[in-house]
Amino acid sequence: MPFVTEELWQALPNRKHALIVSPWPQTQLPRNTNSIKKFEILQALVRAVRNARAEYSVEPVKRISASVVASNEVIQYIAEEKEVLALLSRLDLQNLHFTNSPPGDADQSVHLVAGEGLEAYLPLADMVDISAEVERLTKRLSKMQKEYDGFKAKLSSPKAPEDVVRGVREKAAEAEEKINLTKNRLAFLKSNMLVSN
Fold it and tell me: Residue 195 and residue 124: Cα distance in Å, rounded?
């Protein structure tokens, strides 16, 4: 509410101009680039974990374990901030490990690259019920394949106008890309089912 802000501004001492026409305040505070870099590293890791949780439709209340792999310097900083990392990423604080080499169950984990030299491994079994996810993705793949076949049928029609054909081609390309991504994810999940059995 700008009128309230303006009223508060005018109540401050030594104010000559209205807030709306006042210059932005200049600060002379020193910038600690090392702290900024550390924060950006933590931010990238949180973003990567959140994206993986969203991609695999992990319930928001579910806490998952993780292994963070990085150099000793990065690990030292992130380990100091592990409570913040666990809180922002919904990770299980008791099962949050820091190391400089991939964990033994890396082939059964979702591998995240958060930045140069910063990786995380999230055990797939902690995130989703693999058999239910395979079933869900199989149904979704079947539906996407039908949609893609419909686009291909429309493209085979010789009487369609060029602008319609162009739009259908774009939709078909998008559908094909989604189908390939879903097939890759399904293959990954099925390989994990075989390993876990």
Answer: 12
Task: Yes or no: say if 189 and 134 are a contact pair by the CB < 8 Å rule.
Answer: yes
Longest dimension (CA), the chain: 76
Q: Which of the four pLDDT bands, split at 50, 70 and 90, describes residue 192? A: low
Pick the CATH number of 34-127 from 3.30.1180, 3.10.20, 3.20.20, 3.90.190: 3.30.1180
CB-CB neighbours of 151 under 10 Å: 18
Under 8 Å between Cβ of 38 and 77: yes
Pairing of strands 64-70, 91-99: parallel
pLDDT at residue 174 tops 80: yes
Confidence band (pLDDT; 50, 70, 90) for 125?
confident
Ramachandran bin of 57, using left for φ above 0, alpha for ψ from -120 to 50, beta for the remaining angles: left
Q: Is the pLDDT of residue 45 over 60?
A: yes
What's the token pair of residue 112?
């995240």
